[in-house]
Amino acid sequence: MSHIRSTCTCIKSQERYWYSESTMDNVKNVDKSSYNGGALLRMGLNDNKAGMQGLDKEKINKIIMEASKGSKFYENELKKDQQVNQRIEKMMQLKEKITQQQLLKAQLQVDKLVLELERSRNLSCTIVHIDMDAFYAAVEMRDNPELKEKPIAVGSMSMLSTSNYHARRFGVRAAMPGFIAKKLCPHLTIVPLNFEKYRKVSKEVKEILAEYDPHFMPMGLDEAYLNVTEHLEERLNWPEDKRRYFLNTENTTEKNKEDINIPGTVNIDGYSSSPELFEDGTSVMDDDSGQRDQSLKNVVVFGTSAEEAVKEIRFRIEQKTQLTASAGIAPNTMLAKMCSDRNKPNGQCRISPERQAVLDFIKDLPIRKVPGIGKVTEKMLKALGIVTCSELYQQRALLSLLFSEASWRSFLDISLGLGSTHLEKDGERKSMSTERTFSEISKAEDQYSLCQELCRELAQDLQKEGLKGKTVTLKLKNVNFEVKTRASTVLSSVSTEDEIFAVAKMLLGTEIDSVAPHPLRIRLMGVRVSGFLSEEEKKYQQKSIKSFLKSGKELDFSRLQPGRSNQENLTKNSEASSRGSFFDKKRAARQLNSNNLFPNESVGKQHFHGVKSSANFVEEANKVTDLQKSNVCEIFTCPVCFEEQSSSNLEEINRHVDECLAGSLVEDTVEISKNDLSRENTFNFLSHCKNENIDDCKENVTDQLAGTGQSASTSENSSGNSRDKKFTQIVSEKPHREKQPGDLIDIPRNASIKQCLSPKRNSQENAVQFGRMDHTEETSSSCSFEAREDSVLVCPVCNLEQKTTSLMSFNRHVDVCLNKGLIQELTEKDDCSAKTSDTENSIRVGGLSRGQKCTKPLQGTKRSGLTTSQSASKKAKSIDSKRTIEMFFK
DNA sequence: CGGATCGAC
DNA sequence: CTATGTCGATCCG
What ranges does the record give for the region Disordered, renumbered to this chain (predicted)? Predict the structure, then answer.
């Protein structure tokens, strides 16, 4: 069964249908509405032919509205839309507060960056984006000529993946449920998905592409990026016979033969082979060199230019698969992608590698066409009067004040026509998940078994790739289409059905409890595993397990209790796990908060980890020392279940311990506490430096604890210790590290536009920006924060001296103070608006030394100083969200 | 870290 | 009747 749940459904965002703004706004009085499509329909295609009527936008919208009105789905869409509207409102308020002064300053800053960007513009590459036209539909039409002249869509009554161009005239689009499509176009034929077939065709296409760029990057089944720079260089010297191709009519039906595009003949259909393929440079010869008799009649030779090469690619694709493709040729991926959209279907377009050509192309382009700018961003920008890319550029200063760093930087790149010039192979996978939609399920029993089934499938998939992850996420969508996710991170990686289910079950139980006595009424459930170990970490884990075992018998697991079978119903939470008060508290908190949106967010929790734990660490470290001195036995005692394991096979033992760990851990660590995290690190660390003086290790452990400690008080623990390289290394290597001064200019390598912007350039900038900034302009706390040991710093918030060896711990202290202070401050004052806009940032050590640069990114709009009223609304919001959670699933 | 959102296919 | 599935990234708390 699991193999049926195949991969992706091909839906391009540009081709999706959406409820347009005006549709939304007019929902209350639909009758007099004249909602024009907005983004709803973007046909712009061939005019109707052959009596294919199609529908105009108005009609389409009306039908869609009628079909949608009142549905739970639509209700939810409206709700989401309202949220976006609120975001926009916030943004507009923010905009109001911006002074001319600030704007000018921002303008200067941004323009400095523009110069830099302009200087780094790279036009030397040739990137090609290939996009199969209406892929799934085209395949189905190819394989069933009956469908050729009809409007068809691929998918099901509940969801369409794509439609052919006939159907699009009726407003039938990807991501539209089939039943609505049927209303738009009663004659619509809906063909079920057949992924195996698409995959096979896709493979054929990819074989061709690989010849032009062995490292090409496929994006799903129907499109790909190629870097043909090298190919073109070589191609220049290619003899003609390497560019010569024969028209192949063998595997086409009689009917299709007429349509096959023979050079010089008339093209039959607007989106069958177009004559354009053979325009200009392409020569067609009546070949006489005599290869074969029948097929040699038509021979084409392609030139050496980029256009010619791409025509060749498209020609070969069509010859091989009888499917057409569109293509874009440009100096970077973003442009190439937008280019391929230009002459779709079955066309191609090139942006020549000149700055002016790029800017011309960009100029009037609607921002929505840009990959990475979706429905929401479009709407937000539209609220600012930005629709085209040149407007995006004009407003660059404003945008830098309103949006997060990552966002406005990418906007800037877009408006300059900059993008990634090389194709980075996608890194290791970060997560794996499976989810399913079904008709309402509300019996807990059923929900559990469904959950288990999902875990089973996921486990199979994980094992196929040999992956184990530490975080399990449960996703639920209730019958009102509200989605929520619940995650839990455990200490040791999970991968088997039982391990995953143990966690997922608990998460599910919590959710069921939270709405009790009402049933949880859901229409979708999903399970995801993430937090995979990197290769590095795998090694460490091996090592640490080893030393772990050596010490087996005596190790005191103060917090790890021999696990009960975690198959028991975890929601009961009845059994106390003796010793550690930790879990008692955890449990109490969990139950207390089971109705709370933000459980465990209390101060108490943070306070709880601290000195005590570090004592434990030293203790453990001591024991490890002792045991390492003693001999290693052949018989290990599993430190978790305390059973003797006679095997000398490390692998086997590891597996056993892993199982035991997973068994007992998932039961007790609902969420991993930071305490536990550092404990784990300690282990790795100990084994890592096993060849060194163990006492050093212990010191380091203590230091490490201080570094990861939660409150400023931890700094006391370590103030006396001398720190060595290792300390800094460990701290800085910690994946979950807090922000440091340099980070404030943190450029998160704008991945939102991942494929299209230039990662290389950005990372270089990163390196530059990470440099120290202690000597620059004066700030409220302009100390030199090189984090030397023995520093005594004055917290700019509470004005108390803080002894600290770690910049991080100091920053953390400041954060804590800020959090305490802000609340009061905000409820009282609101006059310092100009400065408040960066309260948080400016106080932050090392921050804001470069003028008023917006450093703290915020999704959508930038956070500003909260006025009294805003603060009130903030509270209201949090109450509100609490309430919605309570009502969720009701 | 956990949760919500956006965006892509 | 009937509104997907999977993944990565960002941002906030």
Answer: 560-580, 708-744, 846-878
